[in-house]
Write a structure and sequence with these properties.
Chain A has about 240 residues and is an all-alpha fold. In chain A, about 80% of the residues lie in helices and about 0% in strands. Chain A has helices spanning about 5-20, 20-40, 45-80, 80-85, 90-120, 130-150, 160, 165-175, 185-195, 195-210, 215-240. Chain B has about 240 residues and is an alpha/beta fold. Chain B has two domains: about 5-75 and about 150-240, 3-Layer(aba) Sandwich (Rossmann fold), CATH 3.40.50.300; about 80-145, no CATH class. Chain B has helices at about 45-50, 90-100, 105-115, 130-145, 160-175, 190, 210-220, 225-239; strands at about 5-15, 15-30, 30-35, 60-65, 65, 75-80, 150-155, 180-185, 195-200, 205-210. In chain B, helix 2 (about 90-100) packs across helix 3 and helix 3 (about 105-115) crosses helix 4. Chain B is globular. The chains are: A mainly alpha (about 240), B alpha/beta (about 240). The interface of A and B includes residues 20, 83, 87, 243 and 245 of A.
Amino acid sequence: MSVRLTLSTTGRVLGQLRHDRRSVGLLIGAPLLLLTLIYFMFEKNGPLLDRVMLIMLGVFPFLLMFLVTSIAMLRERTSGTLERLFTTPLGKLDLLFAYGLAFGLAATVQATVATTVAFWLLGLDTAGNGALVVLIAVADALLGVGLGLLCSAFARTEFQAVQFLPVVVLPQILLSGLFVPRADMAGWLDGVSTAMPLAHGVEALQDVGTSADATGDMWRGYGIVMGCVVLALVLAAGTLRRRTA
Amino acid sequence: MKTAIEVQDLVVTRGGKEVLHGLCTRIPHGGITGLLGPSGSGKTTLLRSIVGVQRVKSGRVTVLGDTAGAPALRRKIGYFTQSPSIYADMTVRENVRYFASFYNLGQAAAEETIKEVGLQEQAGQIVRTLSGGQHNRASLACALVSRPELLILDEPTVGLDPVLREELWAHFRQLAAEGTTLVVSSHVMDEANRCDRLILLREGAVVADDTPQAIKDRAGTDDLDRAFLTLVQGTLEVA
């Protein structure tokens, strides 16, 4: 791996984003729109509103970044640039970590804006620090990036790529504790959800909601998510093939 | 004569069909080697095998003394793909600088290469908004910027007007004079005359592999198009 090549590729991906103002607008605006919807849905039920909005601050970036990166990587493949990059000194890990870094930065902006709006305009209340919410939301977004890149290795077309969403993303959201607290799930479902990285991110967020100080459980959840991010990126690099038919 | 590329018994299948059937050839170091043949004859597949992105069934491709695709080769090869594969949503300058960054080259190298392909006025333009020929040249600049020892160009002059084509060939000539080895594929016979050596491909096999003059002599004609036809018919009769 080369730091220089990773950084220059990060710059390139961010440059592409910079030229695509509409995508940037959607990336920042979509979570705000959805959070506002949630605010009005649960307006009359304060505790539930806090719970759902806090979880959504992690779930939206996860979902959006999964979509964006799986399409971005697929575009790289179908445009022929991926094949061309493979004839240059750029390594597979350089490329994937560059995507991780670039979209991680974009996710930081996204999560900061969304969290700020949630606290100041939508009345979100947590026992813990808002900065921790941003930190965990970015980790969840990175999880979306890592899984998106990994899934795009198995997709030949955009049509296939978007269908990984119901397979990989939705079950994680369903079992994350958003609809039913994990403790109330059937034992085997709880077991399945333990195997899903997003559930640990959501748990960490809920910890910030209930504890004034960062807890060990919170850091453990954060660590699991970040570990899964690195694992997904390494696996994604392993599934990329320099030689194709 | 030093060898730059050696291809031995190369068999490649794509989409269940055998495209190259035990192809053997040798490309000398230095100069311009033309890879000529009709569409579907296996030119792109052969070039992809040389740069090491083609999955091959059997056979061996040696490039500059290394097995094709070896990491050390990635610093020495410039590859121009048939459909211009650069980032359409970035400017020409951003694209060329990005490719330059792989070789630790800076802005100066990028600007110089942009000038070489005649795109200085479009340097700040988003690639998507360029004409087909300009898009092509922007992609070419990305292959040229590292001053590679070996340049693999897959149909670089498609869609270019005669003046630009002339300029690019003059540029290829100059690169060859400076010691670069160029392999240029084309299906336009008038470009074949500009090469030092020609490899004529047909249906995944080498029909002829010689200097343009020798090929014309062998076929007994001064017209390469006709020579190609004669040679192809000759091989069909032998078969």
